Amino acid sequence: MKRSNIDAMICKQEGITEITRDEIHRIQLEKLNIVLKREKEREGFYRDLPERLESLIDLRSLPFTTETDLARDGGRMLLCSQGEVQKVISEQTSGTTGAGKRVFYTEGDCEHTIELFMAGLGEFIYPGSITMVAMPFSGPFGLGELIAEAIRRLGAKPLSTGTGRTYGELNRILEEEQPDTYVGMPTALLSMLRMCGKGSIKRALVSGDACPKTVMKAIEEILQTRLWPHYGSREMGLGGAICCTAHEGMHMRENHCITEIIDENGNVLPDGKWGELVITTIGMEAQPLIRYRTGDWSRIIPGRCLCGSEIKRLDFVKRMDPLGSIREMDELLFEIPELVDYCVKIVDGKKEITALFTSDNGEEQIRSVLEEKDIRSWNCKKAKWEDGALYPGKRVTRQ
Predict the structure, then answer these.
(1) N vs C: which end of the chain shows fewer Cβ within 10 Å?
(2) Which alpha helices (H) appear in 75-212, and where do they start and end?
């Protein structure tokens, strides 16, 4: 079995020939101490922390950084000049709740992200292939633009599909462009496949929000192949972990990010235990974060990967906040084969569901599922070509 591409990427970036746990720990401690020193010199947000740690274990003694800290003091966390900032992301995403946060990137940060995307996509994209990029495009150095650039560097052709397309538009792209690969969010992909059919699509990388097992299973049954999950957040530079040919978790880019899993009391858990994901982004140039609580729930899979890599692997990831319950709803509703998509409106704490189906039999199919969850208000419609899959961040609204 071929070893994960992330090994070769890290070796190239760090100028080493072999990856071992000792070598990874050396790189991480060295980069962490560089960040701490920069904080002292620039009197940054973390200026009161020690200038140097003697071991990675000492990281556990440092305080956590929270979403509130980032929303309130994101500008003070900047460790480069404003002139070096190439991208600022502040809009809400599918994994973000509460006040908006501003995350800054240098050109170097964006270049490292492109290299990670190349490593992940390079596992299954080949020169000459055509890839639908159904991610947000927001101008230079945006997520969609970075993915498209990675695809071009692999010798393939990106289709800047974006989000918010109608099923009619997606169907036209499938028929006219004949893409063989899809990059996007899992529920949007399943929605497209159920409405339009798979067409020429043979494989897919899914990212952007957690992929429920029901959704993953349904997509893999349609495509008759394994999905390639990817994990990332804007706080870690949009790219964080990629899948290898073993499909046994996602390899973290450990030369860029130190990963911890903690319990509800903030104690670090051993590999294999589920808890909140905490990241220290030692590879970020513009805005490194120290012990940032992501609000994501996961675990580090113990041991060496079947592909031979010693790089740590994340299991599936889900949000811990109240809107994370949408994942449970995904698990239930997408098990209905004719469901295309749905949205939830929360009125006075009660959920109202609007669901799209490929047939007129939606009412009968959804009734038993929702009544078990004590949801008494729903509206079922037959999907039309002018309808479109909902961007995950817009699937839940409150009144």
Answers:
(1) C
(2) 107-121, 143-153, 167-177, 186-196
Q: Which two tokens stand for residue 145?
A: 């633009």
Q: Return the half-sphere exposure (C-beta side, CA atoms, 13 A cut-off) of residue 291.
A: 18
- CATH for the 1-320 domain, from 3.40.50.2300, 3.40.50.10730, 3.40.50.12780, 3.40.50.300: 3.40.50.12780
Q: By the 8 A CB rule, do 250 and 243 touch?
A: yes
Asked if the 324-398 domain carries CATH number 3.30.300, the reply is yes
Give the Cα separation of 251 and 74 in Å (integer).
28
Instruction: Kindly report each contact of residues 266-275 with a partner whose C-beta sits within 8 Å and lies 24 or more positions away, as own/partner.
Output: 266/64, 268/60, 269/299, 271/299, 271/300, 271/301, 271/302, 271/303, 271/312, 272/299, 272/300, 272/301, 272/302, 273/299, 274/298, 274/299, 275/299
The percent helix, strand, coil of the chain (3-state, each to 5) is 35, 20, 45
Assigned token pair, 178: 């004949």
Q: pTM higher than 0.90 for the full model?
A: yes
What are the domain boundaries of the chain?
1-320, 324-398
Residue type, 207: S
Please give the DSSP secondary-structure letter assigned to residue 65: B
Mean pLDDT by 10 residues, the chain (399 residues): 95 95 97 96 93 97 95 92 89 51 94 97 96 93 95 98 94 97 94 95 85 89 96 92 96 98 97 97 97 95 96 88 66 89 82 86 78 74 85 65
